[in-house]
Specification:
By secondary structure, this protein is of the alpha/beta class. The protein folds into 3 domains: 3-86, Winged helix-like DNA-binding domain superfamily/Winged helix DNA-binding domain (Arc Repressor Mutant, subunit A); 90-163 and 270-293, D-Maltodextrin-Binding Protein, domain 2, CATH 3.40.190.10; 166-268, Periplasmic binding protein-like II (D-Maltodextrin-Binding Protein, domain 2). 39% of the residues lie in helices and 26% in strands. Strands 3, 4, 5, 6, 7, 10, 11 and 12 form an 8-stranded mixed β-sheet that branches. A two-stranded antiparallel sheet has the order 1-2. Strands 8-9 form a two-stranded parallel sheet. Helix 1 crosses helix 2 and helix 1 packs across helix 4. It starts with a helix and ends in a 6-residue tail after the last helix.
C-alpha cells in the first residue's frame, strides 16, 4: 500500500463513481479499477461494493477512509515541510537577548519574521552580556541581540549594528546627594564606592567601566560584585555603592533608585545583532533580511 493508492482510494470513496474519480485523478477508469483491486488484494478485504449502477463503501472501506485521509495529509505536510526546509522557510531559530528588547523592537520583529516563515519554531534565551556572547560562540544560539562593544574581539562572529544605542548613567539611591542632579561628570565619582556586575556575568562592562574611570583620573573603588542586574540594583538601593549602567536598565530598577546622565565620556552602548559566521542555519539570513526591511539595522 502506497500513498498513490491511498489517494486513488480517497478519490473513489468521495466520488463513489469510477468515471468521476478517474477524471479527477487524470487517469483512465481501467487504471483506477486496477489500483483499487490491487489495494484490496494487498490488505485482504473488500473496500467497495460494486454493481453496474453504483459504488458503495464497505464497513472496512469506511474505516480505512478515516485513516487514509490522515495518512495522505501527514504525507503532504511532510513533503511541504521538506520543501520549505530546503528553501530555508522552516526549522528552528534560537534567539538570545539581554532583556531591553523585550519592549523595544523584538516582539514586532518576531511577528514580521513569523508572518514570512510561519512554519518555523522560535525559541528565546535571556542571558547576561558575558554568558550571551559565550552561548553565541558555543553555538547554543543562532542569533544574539547583544552589546556591540567587544564583538570585534570574538573570533568567528559576524554582527551588524542596530539603530538602538544607550548612553551611560550613574545609578544611586533616591536619598544620595547626586540624586538631585540632572548630569554628573564622571570625575566627581572618584570618591564613591562602586558595585558592579561580576566579571563572569559581564566582563566587557566591567572592563569598560574601569577604563572609563582611569581615563578620568581615578581608580574605581569597587566594594561589591553582583551576579545579575536585579542583585546589582538591590545592592545600590541598600547603600552598598553606586553603579554605572546604560539608561535602558531603568526599566528593571525600583523606584528607590535614580538614574543620572554621565558627562565626560563618549562611551555609548550600541545594540548589535550577532551570529556565528559558520552557522549553517538557513533561517539566519532570512531573519537578517527581515531586520533590514524593518529598518532595525544600520546597513
Amino acid at each position: 500500500m502506497d500513498i498513490r493508492q491511498m489517494r486513488y482510494f480517497i478519490s473513489l470513496a468521495e466520488a463513489l463513481c469510477f468515471s468521476v474519480a478517474a477524471k479527477n485523478l487524470h487517469i483512465t477508469q481501467p487504471a483506477l479499477s486496477k489500483q483499487i483491486a490491487d489495494l484490496e488484494a494487498e490488505i485482504g478485504v473488500k473496500l467497495f461494493i460494486r454493481n453496474t449502477r453504483s459504488v458503495e463503501l464497505t464497513a472496512a472501506g469506511a474505516s480505512l477512509l478515516k485513516d487514509a485521509v490522515e495518512i495522505v495529509a501527514d504525507s503532504d505536510d511532510a513533503i511541504n515541510q521538506s520543501r520549505l526546509a530546503a528553501q530555508g522557510y522552516s526549522g528552528r531559530l534560537v534567539i538570545g537577548f539581554l532583556g531591553p528588547l523585550e519592549s523595544e523592537g523584538l516582539p514586532e520583529l518576531i511577528r514580521s519574521f513569523r508572518s514570512r516563515c510561519p512554519h518555523t519554531d522560535v525559541n528565546f534565551i535571556k542571558l547576561g552580556w558575558g554568558p550571551l556572547n559565550e552561548a553565541l560562540e558555543n553555538s547554543r544560539l543562532d542569533i544574539a541581540f547583544t552589546m556591540s562593544s567587544g564583538l570585534n574581539e570574538l573570533p568567528g562572529i559576524s554582527w551588524r549594528l542596530s539603530h538602538y544605542s544607550y548612553p551611560l548613567s550613574v545609578v544611586v539611591p533616591r536619598e544620595h546627594p547626586l540624586a538631585v542632579k540632572n548630569t554628573v561628570p564622571i570625575a566627581t565619582l572618584a570618591h564613591e564606592a562602586f558595585v558592579v556586575l561580576s566579571r563572569t556575568e559581564s566582563p566587557l562592562a566591567y572592563s569598560h567601566m574601569r577604563q572609563m574611570c582611569l581615563a578620568n583620573g581615578f581608580q574605581p573603588n569597587i566594594t561589591g560584585y553582583a551576579p545579575n542586574l536585579e542583585t546589582l540594583f538591590l545592592m545600590v538601593a541598600a547603600g552598598l555603592g553606586i553603579a554605572i549602567q546604560t539608561k535602558h536598565t531603568r526599566a528593571y530598577a525600583s523606584s528607590q533608585l535614580s538614574f543620572i546622565d554621565l558627562s565626560g565620556s563618549s562611551f555609548v552602548h550600541g545594540y548589535a545583532v550577532a551570529w556565528k559566521t559558520t552557522n549553517p542555519n538557513p533561517l539566519i539570513p532570512l531573519f537578517l533580511e527581515i531586520l533590514k526591511e524593518e529598518d532595525f539595522l544600520i546597513c
